[in-house]
Amino acid sequence: MTQSVGIARAHTNIALIKYWGKRDKELFLPMNSSLSLTLDAFYTDTKVVFDTAFTEDRFILNGLEQDEKEIRKISRFLDLFREYIGEDRFAVVESLNFVPTAAGLASSASAFAALALATATALNIDLSRQALSSFARRGSGSSTRSLFGGFVEWDMGTCSEDSLARPIDEADWDIGMLVIAVDKAKKKVASREGMDLTVATSPFYQAWVETAAQDLAAIKEAIAERDFEKLGRLTEHNGMKMHATTLSANPPFTYWSAASVRAQEAVRQVREESGLAAYMTMDAGPNVKVLCRASQMEELKRELSVLLPEFQLIESLPGQGASQLTEEEWQQSHSRFQKEVGYEG
Predict the structure, then answer these.
(1) Please, which residues have CB within 8 angstroms of residue 116's CB and are 6 or more apart in sequence?
(2) Boundaries of domain holding 105
(3) CB 3.0–4.6 Å: which of 65, 219, 284, 311 could bond 191 by disulfide?
(4) Are residues 7 and 109 in the same domain?
């Protein structure tokens, strides 16, 4: 076979119990287990073509040919699959990112989850989703969770083979998330750099790891009991603790902007004055995500729009796990991207 093709879609996920810090940088093994909610509003579509005629790997993101640095990242990831089955063909990878890149909206999670599934499909590698998640992890830790829908746990494991994701709950109950997009620009401190500095220098870091494990056990209980208030409180507290470790790093840094703080205050105000169930979390970026009841999302959006009129508020319900796409669906995705987002080139 001279050519083989795989196309896949994966949605972003937002960690409710955060992953922050690696114990093995090469294998992307985390310091703590984590838990996330997959979202339907943001996703990546990726097509991978292997062909004997290709003389090198290429990577096209949002219609723009990527430079050697970005291609090397993709090539290293493809090598995991090529080495697994003894494949020697090069590949062209094309991705459409329906989520702002590097702005703390988990674009790398959906990107590498989609790439993992598309690559496995193209090479006809038969892996369970959990096993595939251990491959996806080597591209981006959080992508491990984006292979599944709903609430997903990434078990830190003891080695590369058992550090993988598993679905916890389909989140087919009264759950929603409102994203306050205060800044879609690329963040100044990359997640990997921020993690490394925090692990190496923050005197609070060990306490973070210990309490994250406690938070994970508690939030799994809340999900099993469908206790939204407990779920929300744990989500907000865990996220704030993660960001406290960056402020205690040396030198200190933060992913928050003045607009982030303003958005946080608006969420607290709406929660206190209206009684709406709204709990915030933030990843390595300035945007604020608000966990809420799906049945209250429209009302919450109206309340926050009054306080934050200049910011885009994006609604999302729980998303599904990664899926394969047909060539027709891929062409439709191209058309939709050009209309809704626009190519970079």
Answers:
(1) 77, 132, 133, 135, 136, 139, 143, 147, 322
(2) 3-171+324-340
(3) 284
(4) yes
Residue 67 burial (CB count, 10 A): 9
Q: Tokens 């870091």 correspond to what residue?
A: 205
Whether residue 112 is predicted with pLDDT greater than 90 in this model: the reply is yes
Write down the pTM of the prediction: 0.94
Q: Are strands 90-98 and 34-51 parallel, antiparallel or unpaired?
A: antiparallel
Q: What is the DSSP string of 42-70?
A: EEEEEEEEEETT-SS-EEEETTEE--HHH
Left if phi > 0, otherwise alpha if psi is -120 to 50, otherwise beta: which for 120? alpha
Query: Which residues make Cβ contacts (< 8 Å) with residue 242, sequence separation at least 6?
Result: 18, 20, 208
* pLDDT over 80 (residue 89): yes
pLDDT over threshold 90, residue 332: yes
Query: Are 163 and 67 in the same domain?
Result: yes
Matching residue, tokens 């009264």 = 174
Asked if residue 97 belongs to a domain, the reply is yes
Mutual orientation of helices 258-274 and 297-307 as an angle, nearest 10°?
130
| Residue-level length of the chain | 345
Q: In this predicted model, which residue has the larger pLDDT, 188 or 258?
A: 258
* Residue with token string 């609430």: 151
